[in-house]
Structures are given as structure tokens and as C-alpha cells.
Amino acid sequence: MTDLSIVKLQGALPDKRQVAASFSRAAASYDSVAELQRDVGQQLLSRLPVSFMPGRWLDMGCGTGYFTRALGARFGEKAGVALDVAEGMLNHARPQGGAGHFIAGDAERLPLQSASCDLVYSSLAVQWCGDFASVLSEAYRVLKPGGMFAFTSLCVGTLYELRDSWREVDGLVHVNRFRAFDTYRQLADASGLRVVSLENRPHVLHYPDVRALTHELKALGAHNLNPGRPGGLTGRARIFALVQAYEKYRQAQGLPATYQVVYAVLEKPL
Questions:
Q1: Is 168 contained in some domain?
Q2: DSSP state for residue 79 in the 8-state scheme
């Protein structure tokens, strides 16, 4: 049996089965369409102090392990733990290495001992957590004094072009909802962690047509996961109406899709 002394036994995870299943199905296709994810994650890495060398690090919401491997190369593989709620992602990431341990777990209830990590790194994962205050509380708990929680997330305004175009068509919920940036700021301020940096930056990708965008969202596992989303197939008439509504946003580079990205580096006080 593998010895992982920092792991803490826990009960059943919160019911995130739908999110986990969606990303598990997307594991094989994810990296082929993850331009935004790679760019954002790299920018998050660049926000860590150059002199910062964690003895134990956690990649929380590791996905396919792209940044697990980057963290392992920078800070040492044996010092790393890669965690994700989606078993399919872990199964894809584990053979490629990058960390000493790959474990299934939820950011709102981390299966780790208190004060066991010097760095919690999480890029474009915590937007799927319903209780971000619990995420911050867990990060505070597992960090050693002086440790850092570096994360990126998505906030209100993400995919507004797609959301507003669908609103013209049928008024139903077709695009994932995200927290307001001010909510991230308020929760971070109340977390007990010191805010080193916290900002919101737009990233705009361009697509030749609506189908290319929706295909990418599906390949990422990030298509509509909202409660109240419409069920069943979308009829041709509604798709045609969506295409027509989205065309008003077209730019020279193509159809824009805006992602409002939150970048944060928080520190546990000594």
C-alpha cells in the first residue's frame, strides 16, 4: 500500500458527480483544445515569486496534468500531489507523471492533513466549486504558515457573447454562470489569507463560427452544466437563430469569445 502520510481519511465527497463525469469524458480531447487553459496557467505560474521553493506542493484540480508536470519540473516531482474530482482526468494524468501522488478529491473537502503544503496551485478549476468560502478555508487549513494559494478562476462576463445570443433565441440557461469578481475579492479578504495580488483580466479567443466554439466547449467538458439547462436536442431553427444572433459580434479575426479570468496569489500569514 502506498504511504502518503499527508493524506487524511474522509467520508464521501460532495455530490459533484455531474461535473466530474463531464470532465472525465473530456479527458482524451481536453489538451487538443486547451489553448486558454495553458495560457492562463502559465501566467499564474509567472506570478509566483522567483525565489519561492515549496517543499510540498498541491495541484488542485489538476485535470490532464499539464501543469502538474510543469510544477514537477520547477519544484520537484516527489514533492507534488495532483488532485482532481474527475477520475477520468486522473487516469489520463497519472501515467504521464509530474507528481509523487495522484489522488481523487474535492477542493471543498481536501483529503490532506492540516499544515502539510507550502503551495496550493489551482488553475481554472475552482469556478466549478459551489462554496468558494470552503475552498479558501481548506487552502488555509492545508497550507503551512508562509505558504501560498495561487489560483485562477472565471467570473461574471465570461462567454457573454454566447449567453446574450442565446438569450435572444429562447431566454433559457445555455451558458455556465460564474461568480462576480467582487465576490472573489470579498471572500479572499475574509479568508484569513493575505492577498498578495488579485486581479481580473479578459482573454478573448476567436472562432470561425459558432460550431467551432461549442465543439471546443464540449471537448473541454465545460459545456452547459447549470441546473435548469434545457434538456434534449437543440432544434435546427434555434441553432440558426443562435448563429444569426452571434454574427453581430463578428470581428476581423472571427467570432469572439470573452473569458473574464481571475488571477490571485494569497499567502498564509506566519
A1: no
A2: G
> Distance (Å, rounded) from C-alpha 117 to C-alpha 55?
7
Render pLDDT for 55-84 as a digit per residue (tens, 0 to 9). Answer: 999 999 999 899 999 999 999 999 999 999
Cβ atoms of 111 and 8 closer than 8 Å: yes
CATH number, position 56: 3.40.50.150
Alpha helices, H only, 4-142: 17-25, 27-30, 35-46, 66-75, 87-93, 132-142
Orientation of helix 35-46 relative to helix 66-75, angle to 10°: 20
Residue 264, classed as helix, strand or coil, is: strand
How many CB atoms neighbour CB 17 within 10 A? 12
Cα–chain-centroid distance for residue 2?
28
Q: Cell numbers of 229, please?
A: 439547462
Does residue 244 belong to any structural domain of this protein? no
| Buried/exposed code over 36-58 (b: 16+ C-beta within 10 A; e: otherwise) | bbeebbeebeeebeeebebebbb
Q: What's the structural domain count of the chain?
A: 1
CB 157 within 8 A of CB 182: no
Domain presence at residue 217:
no
- Domain hosting residue 53, numbered range: 17-159+176-205+258-267
The answer to whether position 193 is within a domain reads yes
Q: pLDDT by residue (tens digit) across 88-110?
A: 889 989 999 999 999 999 999 99
Contact yes or no for 61/85 (Cβ under 8 A): yes
